[in-house]
Amino acid sequence: METATYYLFRFFIALFRIIPFRILYFISDLVYLLVFYAVGYRKKVVLKNLRNSFPDKTESEILVIAKGFYHHLTDILIESLKAFTMTEDEVIKRYRYKNTDFLEAFHKQGKSVICVAGHYNNWEWGGIASGKQLSHLPVGFYKPLSNKRIDAFVRRTRVQGRSVLVSILNTATVFETDYKEPAIFYMVADQSPSSPRMAHWMNFLNQDTAVLHGPEKYARFYNMPVAYAWARKIKRGHYEVEFSLLVENPQATPKGAISEAFMKTLEKAILEAPQFYLWSHKRWKLVRK
């Protein structure tokens, strides 16, 4: 079964190689109609998250955001699959970096950086687009797939050029590795923690929220500057990623300050365009004891 799934997956990837974006977005429009109206994928979760996050919005306003989210979600699915067959230069044309001067300054000082981001807009193209746009060595984390053959294929194709892709199961080892040059560690860190005991708790989108402690933990231990990557959707299939410095000296900040700076910046992005956030994730499943 695993082998059959792998070859089916490769078949679809081969199709995506020859299909241009304009046709893929037409397919995305059709998939959106199926997912939202027929299947209703996690619609209860999405609507609950939106209502709790925006208690002042009417039901009609919530529905508009929900429809925008599902339409964007199908675009992200299409773009993620297309990325397997795109070259580094093709991705860079659609995924441009801005405001990297402070990162360049850290690189000249020989400092590695932790870059945090959320599941907002397109977070999948960063690993491919970083190698030529940043001086730091890009190191990205991912969750290994249960299908070993597909997982190996993802690791071969998800990054190009100088970039490195590593399992989240080896996070501690990754930070201890000598890469012979300053690195930028990408951490998409807005997921719900596995345990409330280790989490930092704060108000996020009008809700008591458990926040992953990993980025702050490693930033403090290695005293690495922490940056935020804000991806804005310019038009369909085109993004601009603006970097901002959250904390320069983590060991000099109060406990929880890094986590709060990250989540508050992410919250600002979500409030600007809420339809581009991953509302289908069960973000608030943990309750503080």
Question: Overview of this structure, please?
Answer:
The chain is α/β, with parallel strands linked by helices and 289 residues long. It has one domain. Helices cover 45% and strands 19% of the residues. It contains 11 helices and 9 strands. The strands form 2 sheets. The protein has a 7-stranded mixed beta sheet with strand order 1-9-8-2-5-3-4. Helix 8 links the parallel strand 3 (137-142) and strand 4 (164-167). Helix 3 (43-53) packs across helix 4 (59-82). It is globular, with a radius of gyration of 19 Å. 33% of the residues are buried. The mean pLDDT is 94.
What are the key terms here?
19% strand, alpha/beta, two-stranded antiparallel ribbon, globular, seven-stranded mixed beta sheet
Whole-number total of structural domains: 1
Q: How would you sum up the global shape?
A: globular
Strand order of the largest sheet: 1-9-8-2-5-3-4
Q: In angstroms, what is the radius of gyration?
A: 19 Å
Structural class: alpha/beta
Total beta strand runs: 9
Helix content: 40-55%
Question: How far do the termini sit from each other?
Answer: 42 Å
Unreliable stretches (pLDDT < 50, length at least 5) are none
